[in-house]
Amino acid sequence: APARTRTARNTKHNINEKTVKNYLETFGYLEKGQLEVGNLLMGDMAQSYEDDFRIAIKTLQQFGGIPVTGEIDAATKQLMRQRRCGRPDRELHEGGRHKR
Amino acid sequence: FAKQGEMWKHTNLTWSMSSRLIPSQLNLHETRHVLARALDVWEQASRLTFTEVNSDEADIVVSFARRNHGDAYPFDGRGSILAHAFFPGSGRGGDAHFDDDELWLLQPKNDDEEGTSLFAVAAHEFGHSLGLSHSSVKGALMFPWYQGIQPNFVLPEDDRHGIQDMYGPKVKKKWADNPNYRPIQTPPTTTTTTTTTTTTRRPYIHYHDRHHTNHRHDYNPRNPEKPNYYPTPPTYYPIPPHHPRPTPETTTRSVTNRPARYPNVGHEYPSHPRPNYPNHNVPKAKPSPTVRPTPSSDIPDTCNTSYDAVALIRGELFIFKNRYHWRIGSQGRYPQYPIEISRMWSGLPKDLTHVDAVYERPDKKIAFFVGRKLYLFDSQYLVRGYPKPLTHLGLPESLEKIDAAMVWGHNDKTYFYSGTMYWKFDEEEGRVELDYPRDMSMWKGVGYNIDSVFQWRDGKTYFFKGKGFWKFNDLHMRVEHERQLPSATFWMKC
After folding, report:
1. Secondary structure class of B452 (helix, strand, coil)
2. Which candidate from B79, B128, B136 shows the least CB-CB separation from A83?
């Protein structure tokens, strides 16, 4: 495996889509494992998963009291860097959303 | 505010610091003081009271841990995730965990100072311990992101509404509100209690005394060899000379167990002849746990037992307890049951004492979990290569046993439950899914450490714990009724 690079060590501060996905899943805004399946699907299915991702970001922005844009903007990154409680903000149902 | 759903059934809660997981950087005494203040925030706003105890069995146990510490919420070093807590319930319910890698401050800090106020975070986490979820109201204590703490902190309105909605406001005594009120110093009232005790549990040194006064008996404690024809007057002395010096162990035992060992005490007294004294104080040897009870002794009482495992196999209900199982078909319970499990599944270990969980896989094979091993049967025959360790399924090395297993009809996925956590198992891959374990609180109402779970013919899910069971509502993800129904009447038709 490639040696760890300094940037890798700073991933906690560099927020990319994967980090956002983990954050959204950890704190209950996105069902875990949902996006992997989305990547496998093509066409409008993948599009609807993009929608889920965007909806999840909007929900996070609304809950955190920052402008709701659906984008991973500066305010959202700032919110994700803040210290917080480890409990999810929303208790997802195990039997939750059926995969489309 | 948002209520999670679980709440404590009693209001006089106990809390303690974990005896094992203590903060590595903080003074323990000061830490306890800060935690007590954080609990007081909720006590002042509701009927709840909090008493610190020195036990890991308290309702709320506070721990300081690092990274992965055995629950579904690993910590991440300094920053980001600070702490988490569990909603009310038995076992780990109500407990609060703090990330020991954080720079915790016990005193209010200046804004330019780095660090995290333990008081602020603890007050928030204890909100979860009492049943509150996160609130989206900025400034609320239950807002999920850390906001520091203002001097002279007062519980915000949103949180006060939440806790009073669950436990009711604090009941204030009018006279206590009057700052000028000084209770009159009344002399302490002495109460004399007159008790007429005819119990047999008297300190045993009186035992001889009573014998002497009540019966003309020939035993002479001073000189056991020479019988005494005349009762000697009652004498008090701490230990009869013929007894070995009491050790804490024997003293305790002799007080608590004495009636059984001195047949002439209590209801059998005085009519029985006395045994000869010298050896009646010799404790009977207890059977060591490794000695197997006689077979008949562990046959479970069909109408008065909990269950180790319950499974629907080929459409028939199998209930397992100890080394035995019952079989219930469409015509009801098979006669002659319970019979030994190994009579039907002979591939199980010879010294089997019980099974932990059983389920029928989608491929119709039958999985038995016994301790750290999985035994897979094709009908009654052990599949080659089994038993296999739980780690073979992707379960952690530290897992000692599975409490329950089932294929959940709601999504046709297999689930394993153990302690406070559960896993989703991918039958095709033969391993549990990566983003598990998760916390049992997802299955609202069943608590932790369940005995068994299974999906019945009616397509409903049933959780078992102790001698009762819950019917589970799969859509609402919670039990249909808080109170358990007795298992024996429903499943065994007792």
Report:
1. strand
2. B79
